[in-house]
Design goal:
Elements: H1 2-19, H2 31-47, H3 49-60, H4 62-82, H5 85-112, H6 122-150, H7 153-174, H8 194-213, H9 222-243, H10 249-272, H11 278-285, E1 290-291, E2 294-295, H12 304-323, H13 330-346, H14 361-389, H15 395-417, H16 425-445, H17 447-453
Antiparallel strand pairs: 1-2
Helix pairs in contact: 1-2, 1-6, 1-7, 2-5, 2-9, 2-15, 3-4, 3-5, 3-15, 4-5, 4-7, 5-15, 6-7, 6-12, 6-14, 9-15, 10-13, 10-14, 10-15, 10-16, 12-14, 13-14, 13-16, 14-15
Domain Major facilitator superfamily (MFS) profile: 1-448
Organism: Pseudonocardia alaniniphila
Protein name: Oligopeptide:H+ symporter
Length: 458
């Protein structure tokens, strides 16, 4: 909860901090470059789950990786709060992204260890886990937004650091209760190979630094770079798992079944994560945020979705529990989530072409309600499915694969945002909405085949 408080609290004011003028307390970066940075940063968060999952499965265990990652997150928020200008943005976002990646992969895996294989409560449990996440996501943008409008951006970033610090203290007190599988390293890295891994990491950092200082890795290209890295990492990851001698034939077929779901998930997140790019710009420029003479901060819009998550996650948990074995299969849930996300984009069309500052707040609230329905059909189910389809030797890394689909989708949301403008809203929202619905229909059509490959996993 506290990690999400800090994460969404910071992200609620990040984009406008980048493109607001220096007179408004921002950095004055172009809007296109700002959305590229935000998309790349969001993608890097989920791309970093690969590193976190690898450390958990090969070196530290899931529980220890989560603990150390939380410390890195807090350091990133401190850098954003205290370091000036682009230096703070660069150092802070890299630290938050890498740390959040470790937290995400391992926290989900730890929740998975609380349920025995085949326990029908697993999906419901992940929905409740999602509720905890969204309590933090609700409060974070509200409080950081209030500080940003009253005292300045760096005060908002500082509050995110304080929230992460509270969460770290709380976790330190309770972490001794996480035992068993949570502290086991399932596939330990031999000591003889550790120097090689260190050398690879150092080389990677040096190459990235050289590309950045050489002008190849520029801010306006960042989202495209993360898309490419995510795509390459996806192919490599699937090949490594599928060719491993440590998995059985049944496990291999289950991994193959996950591939179409991975594609649908990436498409879903490329639309959903535009909450932090296009929807933020829309809220800043097109939305009427005047409520009885008070102008609502832009960041408050980021708290609308968590409100609906909190209200509906318990309903979905109860629904899946009540339906039991009669509930829709995971492929059908994925198909519905993707298609409904497409519908949400089409709902922007009645407001397309409105004059700046006139789009009704209730209209956007309704659209974000549909976002939430789509999210609850796919995201917690995807987390649960990744633990159910995971080969024993790749338990945490399979969760990282699901997060990799979010990395690909999130970075793509930054790329797509470059094509958005108020003058072309109808085309933008219409094309993306139709594509989402079409992809959902294709996934529904092939769901019987996927269920056979999943070998009894629903």
């Amino acid at each position: 909860m506290w990690e999400r408080f800090s994460f969404y609290g910071m992200q609620g004011i990040l984009l406008i901090y980048l493109y607001y003028s220096t007179a408004e307390g921002g950095l004055g970066i172009s809007q296109t470059t700002a959305t590229s940075i935000v998309g790349a940063y969001g993608g890097l968060v989920y791309l970093s789950t690969i590193l976190g999952a690898w450390l958990a499965d090969r070196v530290l265990s899931a529980e220890r990786t989560l603990f150390y990652s939380a410390i890195v997150v807090m350091a990133g928020h401190i850098a954003l709060a205290l370091l000036p200008g682009l230096l703070g943005v660069g150092v802070g976002l890299v630290l938050v992204a890498v740390g959040s990646g470790g937290v995400k992969a391992t926290a989900t895996s730890l929740v998975g260890t609380l349920y025995a294989p085949g326990d029908p409560r697993r999906d419901a449990g992940f929905s409740l886990y999602y509720l905890g996440i969204n309590l933090g996501a609700l409060v974070g943008p509200i409080l950081t937004g209030l500080l940003q409008t009253s005292l300045g951006f760096h005060w908002g970033f500082g509050l995110a650091a304080v929230g992460m610090g509270i969460g770290l203290v709380q976790y330190t007190i309770g972490r001794k209760l996480l035992v068993g599988a949570a502290r086991i390293v399932p596939n330990p890295l031999p000591h003889s190979r550790r120097p090689l891994m260190v050398a690879v990491a150092v080389t990677g950092v040096v190459v990235i630094a050289a590309l950045a200082f050489g002008g190849v890795l520029t801010a306006d290209r960042l989202a495209n770079v993360v898309v490419a890295l995510s795509a390459v990492a996806t192919v490599v990851y699937f090949v490594v798992i599928l060719r491993s001698s440590r998995i059985t034939g049944v496990e291999r077929r289950r991994v193959l079944a996950f591939i179409p779901m991975f594609i649908a998930s990436a498409a879903f997140w490329s639309l959903y994560q535009q909450q932090f790019t296009v929807v933020t710009i829309y809220s800043d420029q097109q939305l009427n945020r005047n409520i009885f003479g008070w102008e609502m901060p832009v960041s408050f819009v980021q708290s609308i979705n968590p409100i609906f998550i909190i209200l509906l996650s318990g309903t979905f948990a109860a629904l899946w529990t009540k339906l039991g074995t009669r509930q829709p299969s995971s492929p059908i849930k994925f198909a519905l989530g993707t298609a409904i996300m497409g519908v949400a984009f089409l709902l922007f069309l009645p407001m397309a072409g409105d004059a700046p500052g006139t789009a009704p707040l209730l209209g956007l609230i309704g659209i974000l309600f549909v976002f939430t329905i789509a999210e609850l059909l796919l995201s917690p189910v995807g987390l649960s499915l990744s633990t159910k389809l995971a080969p024993a030797a790749f338990r945490t890394q399979m969760v990282a694969l699901f997060f990799l689909s979010i990395a690909l989708g999130t970075a793509t949301s930054g790329v797509l945002a470059e094509f958005y403008s108020p003058t072309h809203e109808a085309v933008y929202f219409g094309v993306l909405g139709i594509l989402g619905i079409a992809l959902g229909a294709v996934l529904a059509a092939i769901s019987p085949f996927l269920r056979r490959l999943m070998g009894g996993v629903t």
